[in-house]
Automatic annotation (TrEMBL):
Keywords: Transferase
Any one GO MF annotation of this record: hexosyltransferase activity
UniProt-annotated stretches for the region Disordered: 1-26
Residue stretches making up the Glycosyltransferase subfamily 4-like N-terminal domain: 45-172
Organism: Arboricoccus pini
InterPro entries xref list: Glyco_trans_4-like_N (IPR028098), Glycosyltransferase_grp1 (IPR050194)
Top-level taxon of origin: Bacteria
PANTHER family, per the entry: SULFOQUINOVOSYL TRANSFERASE SQD2
Protein name, UniProt field: Glycosyltransferase involved in cell wall bisynthesis
Length: 409
């Protein structure tokens, strides 16, 4: 189902809770809504980027945000959250349930009381939900950001049991549940999630303004990319989920057909060194530019890429593909992901991984060239729909209000 037809954009002017909007009567009566987010870590990933954009867009006069992490390390996003006025709370011991529970109770007692727990993760958050309920947090929102069914299909029996118990606990203790897509909702809340009034879909949004900027004509030169190359880009952490092995084999197949093709891969991760070595073994090193995760992804998409390649094994709703379409990039995306990411009118397409790297190479080269007109059309469509960050922030503010009202019944 096309997302643009199923969820109309909300207007900031009519939705309290977003910066610049009129205050909610409910919030004015009761004071700020205090939200505790549980994310595990603050690496610069998709969930953390979205959450940062949300907490900096929601009105601080109406919402106070704290973030629970399971490490005391200063990570890529830690300083950004603190600078935005968000309290970052390390809750250590997640591998030791008794220690974690004691630390959770202490942090809630010292920093609460909280109105809402908003979890951003999978099965372990069933335990967090239970602790929050026992600590008296009235509204508990479970947010499913990924479809882990492909992972569970290959997992061991003990892990499947652990995940099943975790998700059962989430469904029991959550007062509200949201998936970032239909697939993500079904992954956490079961296939019949639509039959439970607590559960639904909340699309994450992207900030469209950086993608409307003019391209930097000197960016390719600074990156060492030949000016006349056809550049295929990818953004994602170097982990198994992102399927970089398939990506590199596809790159080799593309190069056999178009010797002018160049690849730009942005991201960090535990498998980065392994894939850099694999690129060298395939003879691709002169034709691939690896850069670490950065704050200037929109500029790289606009100024350095011609197409976008995304062969992930599984995702919830990969916002980076929406960002690529906002930049006007034709995308080739694995069809194991939700079709909700295809923006209406896009020239992007989906292809089965089983089709093989040669078919992927042919499909990449067959994508139409990006034009300023196609970029403008994508921007206009996205501004009207739920992937616009303004609409997403308004939807989240409304969800917090509704969650509190539901928990008080």
């Amino acid at each position: 189902m096309n997302v643009m037809n199923r969820s109309s954009a909300l207007h900031v002017e009519s939705t309290p809770g977003v910066r610049g909007a009129p205050p909610s009567t409910h919030v004015a009566d009761r004071g700020r809504i205090k939200v505790l987010h549980s994310v595990g870590h603050l690496l610069r990933g998709g969930i953390e980027t979205w959450l940062y954009q949300m907490v900096t867009r929601l009105d601080p006069a109406q919402f106070e945000h704290h973030v629970l992490v399971w490490t005391d390390e200063e990570q890529a996003f830690t300083a950004d959250f603190r600078a935005a006025g968000v309290r970052v709370l390390p809750c250590l011991g997640h591998t030791n349930p008794l220690r974690f529970a004691a630390n959770f109770r202490r942090l809630v007692a010292e920093n609460g009381p909280y109105d809402i727990l908003h979890t951003h993760g999978t099965h372990y958050h069933g335990f967090v939900m239970m602790l929050a309920a026992r600590a008296g947090i009235p509204a508990r929102i479970a947010h499913s950001h990924t479809d882990i069914k492909p992972v569970l299909a290959e997992a061991s029996l003990p892990y499947k049991l652990y995940a099943g118990l975790g998700h059962a606990a989430i469904r029991h203790w959550a007062t509200v549940g949201r998936g970032v897509s239909d697939l993500a909702a079904a992954s956490m809340f079961n296939a019949d999630w639509r039959d439970d009034a607590r559960f639904g879909v909340l699309y994450c949004g992207v900030d469209l303004e950086p993608f409307a900027a003019a391209p930097d004509p000197l960016l390719r030169a600074r990156l060492g990319i030949p000016e006349k190359s056809m550049v295929i880009g990818h953004v994602g952490r170097f982990e198994k989920q992102k399927n970089h092995s398939f990506l590199l084999e596809t790159a080799a197949a593309v190069r056999r057909r178009d010797p002018a093709a160049h690849f730009l891969l942005i991201g960090d991760g535990s498998q980065r060194a392994e894939h850099v070595a694999r690129a060298e073994a395939l003879g691709l090193s002169p034709h691939i530019t690896f850069i670490p995760d950065c704050r200037t992804i929109p500029a790289h998409m606009i100024g350095a890429m011609d197409r976008f390649l995304f062969p992930s094994l599984y995702e919830g709703l990969p916002l980076v593909t929406v960002e690529a379409q906002a930049a006007g990039l034709p995308c080739l995306i694995s069809d194991s992901l939700t079709r909700e990411i295809l923006v209406e009118g896009t020239s992007s397409r989906m292809l089965p991984l089983a089709a093989g790297v040669d078919a992927w190479a042919e499909a990449l080269l067959a994508l139409p060239a990006r034009t300023e007109a196609s970029k403008a059309a994508m921007q206009a469509t996205l501004r009207r729909g739920p992937f616009n960050i303004v609409s997403a922030a308004a939807s989240l503010a409304s969800l917090y209000e509704q969650s509190l009202e539901r928990s008080s019944r």
